[in-house]
Every structure is written in C-alpha cells, then in structure tokens.
Amino acid sequence: MLTFQRFALGALQTNAYVVVNEDRTRALIIDPGTADGALMRKLDGLKVEAILLTHAHFDHIGGVDQLRKKYGCPVYLHPAERDWLTDAGKNGSARWADVTPPIATEPAEHELADGQKLELIGTTFEVRHTPGHSPGSVGFLVGDLLFAGDALFRRSVGRTDLPGGNQEQLSRSIREKLYTLPDDTLVLPGHGPETTIGEERRENPYVR
C-alpha cells in the first residue's frame, strides 16, 4: 500500500506530497514549492523516481531545480505549460517579488497527456487533464487517491483570474474529470486540507 506525507511549503503554504511505495524503497514528489529540509529528510534512503507537477505556477515549482539535481530524477509536466519552468514571467514568480525571487529552471524531461498511465514506484498513476486554473493543470489518480493540484479544494476551487485561467473551463474539468470519480476518492489539493469527491459533489458551492 502506498503512503504519502503532505508538506505545506512557502509563503502560500502550497501542499507538496512525498509518495512512497509499499516496501519503502522508492518515492516520488508532487509539487515541490520549495526544497524543504523536512521533505528531503523524508526521502533519506529512498530512490526518488520522479517529480510530478500538477501545474507550473511558481508556488508549486520553487524546489524543482534543487531537488532534480540532488536526486537525479526527471520532471513531468503538461505541454500546455512547457515553457513555464524556464520563464519567470509565465510561472508568475516575476510578478510576485514580495513573495518569491524569480524562478527559472530547465524544461521538464517528460510531457503529460490526459488519460496517460505513468508506471512509477511500482504502481500506476493516471493523468487527468483539468484545465481552468491554468492551461496545463492536471490531477494524478492512484487507487482512491487524487492529487488534484489547484483545480479542486475543500469547499472551494482554484482561482481563474490569472493568465490562462478560465472559470467555465475549470467547472467543466471538475464535473467531467473529477466528479465522475467514486465518492470515497480522497482529494489531496494543492492548498488546504483534504476532502473527498463525495463531499465536494454535495457541498462545494462553486461547482455542483
């Protein structure tokens, strides 16, 4: 059985996740907003196979460069945001000087596609493209866990007023790609506490 640990990192308290395989030998990182010491201690003795990005806003990618170099692991990102890792203007870090220095790193080694199956740490992660918060936003579904990025939060949804955001598109993504999952699917969002698909389908005031 997979295990995971959440780390709320940086000025925006962005959730990064370390996911570890059943025999506790292999791991991957989802959305490392910073190269946090506690996160890296969690990885001690593990083979880090990948960094998965739900999208490339600055608060989700601040630790990519350092972690990729330290662990020698590839980065996965949707091609709609292919150049966001290399461009501080596009990932937003250039516009938020009071929060972060400009962030730029090498492009992702691998591109993600809707419905793609990633075989990592001995299990399968399904990619669900959920544009609306940003053009390349994706969720990663593994068993009954959904790493949802900034598409769906507990009783809320991702903001759509940033470049590339679209409220109608986000609502459609949530209804068609997320609310179709079983009620007991655990939603692990990019900010804030976890929830379930069933709870959000019933209670979320933004998308019914």
From TrEMBL:
<dbReference type="GO" id="GO:0016787">
    <property type="term" value="F:hydrolase activity"/>
</dbReference>
<protein>
    <submittedName>
        <fullName>Glyoxylase-like metal-dependent hydrolase (Beta-lactamase superfamily II)</fullName>
    </submittedName>
</protein>
<keyword id="KW-0862">Zinc</keyword>
<keyword id="KW-0378">Hydrolase</keyword>
<dbReference type="Pfam" id="PF00753">
    <property type="entry name" value="Lactamase_B"/>
</dbReference>
<dbReference type="InterPro" id="IPR051453">
    <property type="entry name" value="MBL_Glyoxalase_II"/>
</dbReference>
<keyword id="KW-0479">Metal-binding</keyword>
<dbReference type="InterPro" id="IPR001279">
    <property type="entry name" value="Metallo-B-lactamas"/>
</dbReference>
<dbReference type="GO" id="GO:0046872">
    <property type="term" value="F:metal ion binding"/>
</dbReference>
<feature type="compositionally biased region" description="Basic and acidic residues">
    <location>
        <begin position="198"/>
        <end position="208"/>
    </location>
</feature>
<dbReference type="InterPro" id="IPR036866">
    <property type="entry name" value="RibonucZ/Hydroxyglut_hydro"/>
</dbReference>
<comment type="function">
    <text>Counteracts the endogenous Pycsar antiviral defense system. Phosphodiesterase that enables metal-dependent hydrolysis of host cyclic nucleotide Pycsar defense signals such as cCMP and cUMP.</text>
</comment>
<feature type="region of interest" description="Disordered">
    <location>
        <begin position="184"/>
        <end position="208"/>
    </location>
</feature>
<feature type="domain" description="Metallo-beta-lactamase">
    <location>
        <begin position="13"/>
        <end position="191"/>
    </location>
</feature>
